[in-house]
Amino acid sequence: MGLRLMCVVAHPDDECFGFGGALALAADRGIETYVVCLTDGQAATNRGDAASGEALGAMRREEFRASCEVLGVTEYELLDYQDAQLEFAEFSVAVGRLVERMQRFRPDVVITFGGDGGQNSHPDHMMASMLTTAAFHWAGQAKRYPDATKLHKAKRLYYLSADFSIPGRPPAMRIPWTVVLDIRSAKERKLKAFLMHVSQAPLMEKVKMVFEEHGDDERYALVAAMEPQAARMGTDLFEGLDG
């Protein structure tokens, strides 16, 4: 079995705005990718021509599908949690749903937000980080979910980080990065994927200059690994892993 990458996000457009470079580069290398999005983004400020939350959710589900296809994502799934309410989800149940997916997909590497909540410090992003972190560890522990039959220990967990702040947003306290991923070869695909989120066009206009100035790389922090090791800088999420 070849290498596999799993990405857990909170909202449609997170997959491309935050992680699009990593996903596209993985696809280029023949690495299977799986994106799990926890909500359908019904609480978004930008709502396109949607007349209701349900209509916006349906619109954003389709945008998420189109974005993932642009990025070459192998498998993608959008769950049914309520946008802007992830902090109130039953923690163990939500983690269990991610554990089930990790045990089925069996990723080598898992990527998600850091506890800072990403560039806009969104509470849903923070919760995506906490839920994914617990699932990363618990997917390999028999006592956590006794009914699980396929325990799995992914080899690495990375948090998204950054070396800049979005103007007008409170600066987040970001985790220091250990990987600078050169995404120049995938930059246009990352932008194209974001443009699939038509309902979020005003957001794209607001961050266009940020994307142009800082869009050549993505930065990640290694926060868990199979072997004890000192922190060091790298350029590849899969360095040293065999397919």
How would you characterize the overall build of this protein?
This protein is of the alpha/beta class and 243 residues long. It contains seven helices and seven strands; from the N terminus they run E-H-H-E-H-E-H-E-H-E-E-H-H-E. It has a single domain, classed as Rossmann fold, CATH 3.40.50. Helix content is 35%, strand content 18%. Strands 3-2-1-4-5-7-6 form a seven-stranded mixed sheet, with helices on both faces. The longest helix is centred in the first third of the chain and has 19 residues, at 53-71. The termini are close together.
Which short descriptors sum up this protein?
243 residues, alpha/beta, Rossmann fold, 7-stranded mixed β-sheet, 18% strand
Give a concise summary.
The protein has 243 residues and is of the alpha/beta class. Helix content is 35%, strand content 18%. The protein is globular and about 45 Å long.
What is the top-level CATH class?
A: Alpha Beta
CATH overall fold name = Rossmann fold
Q: Which spans of ≥5 residues are poorly predicted at pLDDT below 50?
A: none
What is the H-and-E element order? Answer: EHHEHEHEHEEHHE
* Strand order in the largest sheet: 3-2-1-4-5-7-6
What portion of the residues fall into strands of 2 or more residues?
Answer: 15-25%
Q: How would you name the CATH homologous superfamily? A: LmbE-like
Looking at how many chains there are and whether they match, the oligomeric state comes to single chain
Helix content: 25-40%
Question: Structural class of the secondary structure composition?
Answer: alpha/beta
Structural Rg: 17 Å
Coarse morphology: globular
How confident overall, as mean pLDDT?
Answer: 94
Sheet having the most strands: 7 strands, mixed
